[in-house]
Amino acid sequence: MQNLAPVALAALTLELIPAAIFGFAGERAGRVVAHWSGVLRIAAPATFSLVYVGVTTSQHIFHWAWFALYVTLPVAIAWLLEQANAADAQQRVNWRDAAILLLLGLAVDLRWFDPAWPAGWQALGKILLVDVGLYGFGAIRQLSGTGFDFRLKWSDWTTGLRELALFAPVVLVLGLALGFIHPHSNFPRLGAAALQWVGIFFFVAVPEELFFRAWVQNLLERRVGRRMALVLASLLFGLSHFNKRSAHFNWRYVLLATIAGIFYGRAWRARRRVPASSITHATVDWIWSLWF
């Protein structure tokens, strides 16, 4: 596809703006949106569809049905979360919260919207859904205690690496016993390795930790308590890997991802910080890509 890279990179830059806003000034953004009229608050996320328009028109694969989806879905989610605020001001978890998380999770995991995007750039659709969730839960629902913050602290590193140290022997023993991991050497130059870690941190770990810890585990704690929320969120995280690296149900991956989720969840709940669990998550994936 001709001239896709510049357009896709421009689209990616636009998609990262909401993450930057909520990652550096989430509370302030929530207060600003709260002063908008109800119609504007609910209609505003329809602008996320412009990314789809720009990318697909440049490649002559624009479809009105997909455009309608990307206009109406963010608006519907904003409206539902506005209703959730009215019904559940104490944020004890409303059925609308669960329905939206289920929809977003399944859409990403089962790749429902991938056909809308050019080959090789389906990640743009996934990031768009992250933006929709950030706006909905950050600006409309203003969900407390998420810990979504790009201003990293020293405690994020100590907590994240502590959970990595606790998880490493477990995954090594179990992974080797199950034949799931296979040691090999694939270490690039130091600069490339560092950039790989940064890429995994921002584009894999942060979105998944935002979803499973800041939203799912956070909300579950309000219903079932800290311990059960950790278990359930970890189990859901494990199940989300059922179709990874396999055409069938990959039970080994599910098992190890569930155990990993326990340690990621512990890292997040230690100080309720997405950066902490993302450091654990990113470093696990990084080490795996280099040596296993």
The ordered H/E elements are HHHHHHHHHHH
CA radius of gyration is: 19 Å
Report the principal-axis shape.
globular
Proportion of residues in β-strands? under 5%
Alpha-carbon distance between the termini? Answer: 33 Å
**How many strand segments?**
0
Largest sheet, in brief, is: none
- Helical run tally: 11
Uncertain runs are none
The computed structural class is mainly alpha
Helix content, binned percent = over 70%
Q: Total domains, how many?
A: 2
Q: Write down the overall mean pLDDT.
A: 94
Walk me through what this model shows:
This protein is mainly alpha-helical and 292 residues long. The chain has 2 domains: 4-140, no CATH class; 154-291, no CATH class. Helices cover 74% and strands 0% of the residues. It has 11 helices and no strands. It is globular and about 55 Å long.
Compose a concise summary of this entry:
By secondary structure, this protein is an all-alpha fold.
Task: Give descriptors for this structure.
single chain; 292 residues; mainly alpha; 2 domains; 11 helices; 74% helix
Write the layout of secondary structure elements.
Elements: H1 4-34, H2 38-43, H3 49-58, H4 64-87, H5 95-109, H6 123-140, H7 154-177, H8 190-224, H9 226-239, H10 251-271, H11 274-291
Helix pairs in contact: 1-3, 1-6, 4-5, 4-6, 5-6, 7-10, 7-11, 8-9, 8-10, 8-11, 9-10, 10-11
